Amino acid sequence: MNPSARDEPILEARDLIARYGDRTVLAGINLTVRRGDILTILGGSGCGKTTLLRHLIGLAVPASGQVLFLGHNLHALDDAEAERLRRRMGVLFQGGALFGSLTVEENVALPLVEHLGMELRLAKRIAQIQLSLVEMQHAAQLLPGELSGGMRKRAGLARALALDPEILFFDEPSAGLDPITSAGLDQLILRLNREMGMTIVVVTHELPSIFTITRTALMLDQGRIAASGSLEELQNSPNPRVRQFLQRQIPDRPPGSKSWIEAAMVAKGSADS
Amino acid sequence: MESKPEPASPIRVTTRAENGHLLVRVEGDLVLQGYSPELRAALQGTPSPAGEVWLDLESVGRINTIGAAALLESLSELRTRGVPFRFLALSVPVRSLLAALPHEAAIERTRSLRPPPGILEHVGGEAYTAWEHLHQIASMASQALTWCCIAPLTGRGLKTHFVLQQVSRHGVDAIPIVSLIMFVIGLILALQADYQLRQFAATIYIADLVGVGLTRELGPLMTAVILSGRSAASIAAEIGTMRVTEEIDALVTMGMNPFKYLIAPRILGLIIALPALALLGDCIGILGGYVIGVFYKDIPSASYLAETRYAVAVSDVLTGLAKSAAFAAIIGLVGCYQGYYVRGGPQEIGRATTTAVVLSLFLVIAADLFFTFLFYLFG
């Protein structure tokens, strides 16, 4: 990859606004993902992380604003064009989202067969190679129901990698995993980025993951971007909520708020009278 | 070694009117075991315009969350009655627990966050939901039509092996239950027919009644009823689970249209399977009638078969099969719709499955009435 292509923006959100009913979940998000970057989207539960991800991968239609993937507005394209464009992104869902009726190997082979018209035998051979990339070759013949949570995620990752996507999305990769498995997944993310030059977007709230994989970070708070930049920039952010999140602190009680109990006490003098 | 907790000392509440205020003094332990309605009664008994209520909680020994909740509830009642209250003194445990609990006003706020909807709001909300459902059903039906009929013809692809898979699941696998039920229906129909016909010594017409009744009406209807229970439920549960586990999202992000890969094969599979099952059901039902007619009513076998052949016209069978194709579309569409729009968790899948069965049963029978009436008018 030449250096000029490295900084090219691959995914952009412009003034993205999302609503569920009359509740605004995302209130004007602007972001740019550059080729070769690892962007982590962080924030507390309910801050709109998952909603943002769903909009970035085109699963949800924004109330207003745009998502540009490789310069195309995902929501302005007709179905066939959008489908073609989506094949160039890979998504790892929280639970892996493997198809329960297919074996691991068939899951990985599916996009190859369906999109490249590949013969099933060949597709399975390639699936084997992709599974060995995530150290799952031994489980190729198993059904998703027979796998552990971590294995399911790795198999889902192999499937997301099947069509050699230009960008990979991870939804809470550490959710529900033990620390060692989740650290292994973090290393895998780093390897994909380093060795294959993969552009990666990770949505997470797990601090160890954040500190391991982040190159660029973006913190959401109540549907807005509270801070963005490198991890150091976030740690020194003027916004106290950003620092508290990264230092695992509970927000302070607002200063000067008098306890209601004190307010309800009988004044000293009047009690004696 | 674990030490046994001391028994809670009972609550004693004394009230005394002082100048301008009512002094309520509480002694004992405000805990679950010691919780008594006395404190609440004492506070409730305070006359509204009596001025302030002063609470002396200095002699409260122990307090737990239940005691504290009861105390806060009583205070909140005082407030709604417009009686001002103050704390004269608080023991250390009371003060620290009350301070740790969320501010009473905050609890009040969360309670009043969403006031119960008024009638107008309720009706409006329901109408809006109904409109949304209608919109979703229409869009599902148009997508299904596109991917079942138009896309295969314009070469945008039909997943033939997925369709065959569904034919096998909803058709071949249902053969035993359909056969069994239709055989029994044939028996029942023949017995019922005989009950009426023997008054006129016309038992040979059992063959007519069974043959026409099954091919035109009961064959298609009963198989559709069986598949409403069997296939609508399994489709709704399967697609609903795929929705909840993000498998449908995964399909979309992989650039694979769920209507092409999931919905159309199921509906088409049913449209192939159900008429075939209905035809099978017709034959087996007629066999049931034959068993009663020949072995129980001693009608000669050849006469029974000849009478059946004479009574049942090809158009009867075709009408029945046309109906069952329509029933299949209803069952498939309802099952897919209920599963596809599942939001939330496992309990929603259960709800969707139930709705799919009930709704498809109802729609099948309504459609049957419609067709029967149509054929009655023009047939």
SSE sequence of chain B, one letter per element? EEHEHEHHHHHHHHHHH
Beta-strand residue fraction of chain A: 15-25%
The major β-sheet of chain B equals:
4 strands, mixed
Q: Count the DSSP helices of chain A.
A: 12
Low-confidence stretches of chain A: none
Radius of gyration of chain A over alpha carbons?
23 Å
Largest interface, counted by CB within 8 Å of the partner chain's CB: A-B, 34 and 25 residues
**Rg estimate of chain B, integer Å:** 35 Å
Q: Distance between the terminal alpha carbons of chain A, to the nearest Å?
A: 86 Å
Structure description:
The complex is a heterodimer of chains A (273) and B (379). With 273 residues, chain A is an alpha/beta fold. Helix content of chain A is 39%, strand content 23%. Chain A contains 12 helices and 10 strands. In chain A, the strands form 2 sheets. In chain A, strands 6-7-8-3-9-10 form a 6-stranded mixed sheet, with helices on both faces. In chain A, strands 2-1-4-5 form a 4-stranded antiparallel sheet, with helices on one face. The longest helix of chain A is centred in the C-terminal third of the chain and has 18 residues, at 179-196. The N and C termini of chain A lie far apart (86 Å). The mean pLDDT of chain A is 85. Chain B has 379 residues and is of the alpha/beta class. Chain B has 2 domains: 12-100, STAS domain (Transcription Regulator spoIIAA), CATH 3.30.750.24; 147-378, no CATH class. In chain B, 70% of the residues lie in helices and 9% in strands. Chain B has a 4-stranded mixed sheet, covered by helices on one side. In chain B, strand 2, helix 1 and strand 3 form a beta-alpha-beta unit. Chain B is elongated. The mean pLDDT of chain B is 86. The chains are: A alpha/beta (273), B alpha/beta (379). The interface between A and B is medium-sized, with 34 and 25 residues.
